[in-house]
C-alpha cells in the first residue's frame, strides 16, 4: 500500500494562492463526476524541493476529457482534447496551462514474457513513470484535499537525493530514460542509485539505443543542453560511455569543458541584458560540442539525429561561416565598427554567442559584444527618398551612398542628420 500524509500546510506555504485555488477547483469539478483527481509528477517533486514549477499535470480516474471540458467551462478557459489518448490541455484566460490525463483501469503488461499485474489506476499511471522522484501524487478531491500518496518511496529518495527507476526493465521499456536520469541528477545535485546506475551501464553495453529513432534520442539530448549548466551532464555521459551516441571520437577534454564554461558565461551575459530576446540555448552548446568535426562528419551527425533542415543549416553551414568570420576578424584588429557591422549582421544570435564563447581574442569578444549591445541598432537617418529629394539620379549608386553613410556613422564620424546630408553632398561632388 501507499504511504499517505497530509501536505495541505506545505501547499499553502509553497504555492501561490491562485495556484491553490485552481487545484481546489479541480478537485471540486472531479467530485461532481465522482472521479478521483490528483496533481502528480514533476510539479509535486518540485514543491518538495522548494523549486517553482508551472507545469501542472492532473491525473483523473474516470474521464479526463469530461473533466477538462467542465473545468474549462467553469473557468472560461480554452480546451484541447485528444480523444484517442484520453488527454486534454486546458488554457486559462491568463494563459496558464493545465495538462490532464486519464488513468485507465487496466493491466500492466511488462515487456518480455513476464506476468501481467493488476493495479489501481492512479498507481498504474505512476508506475509507468521514469523515476521514483516523479511518482508523488496529491489528492485534490474535497474530502481528501492535500493527501499525499507515495507508492514508491519517492519521499525517501528525495531525502536521500537519489535517482532511481521503478523496476528493472525500465530502460528496456524506454532507453531515453538514461538521458533523463543524467539530466535530473545534475539539475538537482542528486546521485543516480547503485542499481539504476548498473542498469544504465547494461543499457549502454547492450546498446538499447539502437532501437530508438534518432529524433527521440536527440530530443532528450537537447533537453540536457537546455539545462542551466550542462557541463557536468556531459562529463557524466562520458562516465557512462554515452557520448559515442553523438560521435565515437567525442571526449570532454579540457578544451571542450573550457568552451562549455565560456558558453555558460556568455549566455548569462546575454540573458541579463536581453531578457526578452529568445534564442535556442541548446543550439549554442551543441555547436560547441561538435566543433572539432569537419563538415562531412557534422552532416552525418545531423542526419543521424534527423534534425530539421533549419537546424542542419545552422550546424553544417552557418557554424563554418562563423569560424571563418572569427578568422577574418582576427586579421583586422583593431576592429573598426563598420567591419564589425558588415561581418556580423548576417548572423543570428546563436551564432554570435557561439563566436563570443569560442574566440580567445579579447578584442574580438569585445567587438561582438559591442555589436550586440549597440552597433546592430544603428541606422542611417538619410534614406533613399532623401537622396531623391536632393536631386540624385536613382540607381545602384543609392546603395553605395547609403552604405557609405552607415559606415561613417558606425565609425563615429557622423552625429546628426545634417552631418549625413553634408556627407552626401561631399560624396557626390
Ligand atoms: P521538466 O522540469 O524538465 O519539465 P518534468 O519532470 O516535468 O521535468 P517532463 O519531461 O515534462 O519532466 O515530463 C513530465 C512527467 O512525465 C515527468 O514527471 C515524468 O514522470 C513523466 N515522463 C516524461 N518522460 C518520461 C519517460 N520517458 N518515461 C517515463 N515517464 C516520463
Automatic annotation (TrEMBL):
UniProt family annotation: Belongs to the tRNA nucleotidyltransferase/poly(A) polymerase family.
Protein name, per record: PolyA polymerase
Organism: Desulfonema ishimotonii
Shown segment, full-protein numbering: 462 to 890 of 890
